[in-house]
Structures are given as C-alpha cells and as structure tokens.
Write a structure and sequence with these properties.
Layout (H helix, E strand, L loop, with lengths): L18 H12 L5 H6 L15 H14 L5 H15 L3 H9 L3
Length: 105
C-alpha cells in the first residue's frame, strides 16, 4: 500500500506513511505542533495497527521512569506541562530534566 500523503508514491510502513513522511509527522508531534489524533482525524496518518499499541515495553518503561514525577500532580497533562515549562526555562531536554530530578537537583 502507498503512503497516505498526496504526491508520495513510496510504500507505507507505519501509520499508513512511508518512512520519510512518518519521520516528518513524528517530528511535528514531538514539537507539539500537532498530535497523532489530529493527524488521524485529517487523514494524514492511520491509527497504530499492532496489538497492545501504547502499552508496549517502551511505554511501560517510560511510565515507570516518569511515575515519581507524576506523584502529587492532578493528572498526566499537568505533569507533562510542568516538564515542558522546566525544559523551556533552562534549555534542557526532558531526559536531562528527568536526570536532574533523579539526582535531586
């Protein structure tokens, strides 16, 4: 099957996108320009098709690492916004911020 993006004739691999279009979409999601739900609603990406989507080994490990940061916070979105603000404030990445928290800085 071809990539969902008009004008792209490369075979799709992930979420109905070719590797190049997927990387561009993932980068836009990472920059908080869009989210996967919006891309899916606009026909610019498919929902993930594999079983257990969102609960794979990486997702479980990430939740475990972030769990201490979420304690005492109202919800995940509040915690993520706090991480983004901390990142924006000093120019560190989220992983650097997590290391600082882990080290008690």
């Amino acid at each position: 099957m071809k990539c969902l993006i008009d004008g792209c004739d490369v075979d799709s691999k992930t979420r109905g996108l070719c590797p190049t279009c997927y990387q561009a979409a993932a980068a836009a999601v990472k920059r908080d320009e869009v989210d996967w739900g919006w891309l899916e609603a606009k026909g610019l990406a498919n929902k993930p098709q594999h079983k257990g989507s969102g609960d794979g080994a990486f997702a479980v490990a990430l939740k475990k690492q972030l769990a201490p940061l979420y304690e005492g916070m109202m919800d995940r979105d509040v915690a993520l916004e706090a991480l983004r603000q901390a990142k924006d404030g000093d120019g560190c990445t989220i992983s650097e911020f997590i290391k600082e928290v882990d080290n008690g800085e």
